[in-house]
Design brief:
Layout lengths: L14 H16 L21 E3 L5 E2 L1 H12 L3 E12 L2 E12 L2 E13 L5 E9 L5 H10 L3
Parallel strand pairs: 1-6
Antiparallel strand pairs: 1-2, 3-4, 4-5, 5-6
Length: 150
């Protein structure tokens, strides 16, 4: 087991934190609830062949399954987020955020911790999601379930 440690704070973003910020902005720009999103630009940030995402419902997805999930979710959801804190250590970025999902008359607010792991080329190879929510949004849960069905 390896233990990552951090001994200080700085005011500028690290290189991997900037990747996470750009990746998150690209997703948010597509999640308008209107039209079919284009995820091709996200591939600039992702190690597509080895990508794994483990979601809040313990669903595991490769890149193809993940893009199916976010297509269904983003095609029907207006998404906003507020970043509380970003921690970068080694090949790991921890992003603590509040997510707000709007779908018709439904509204879901979640506190989320997203843990990003990177390869040597600074591409996201793994994304783990942990959340706190009173209501996760049944449409989001169903989109996650459908994306992993074969």
């Amino acid at each position: 087991m390896t233990f990552l440690t951090a001994t200080g704070n700085r005011t500028e973003k690290g290189p991997l934190a900037r990747v996470v910020e750009d990746y998150s902005s690209a997703i948010a720009a597509q999640a308008t609830g209107e039209g079919v999103p284009d995820w091709k630009p996200l591939e600039d940030f992702v190690a597509v062949d080895e990508f794994r995402r483990v979601g809040a419902y313990l669903e595991e997805m490769d890149w193809e399954q993940y893009t199916r999930f976010i297509t269904e979710w983003a095609g029907s959801t207006r998404f906003e987020m507020t970043v509380f804190q970003v921690t970068e250590i080694g090949d790991l970025v921890v992003q603590e955020i509040e997510e707000r999902h709007h779908r018709g008359d439904e509204f879901v607010r979640k506190n989320v911790v997203a843990i990003y792991r990177f390869d040597a080329r600074r591409r996201i190879r793994r994304l783990d999601i942990y959340e706190q929510a009173r209501d996760s949004g049944q449409w989001i849960i169903e989109a996650a379930r459908r994306s992993t069905e074969d």
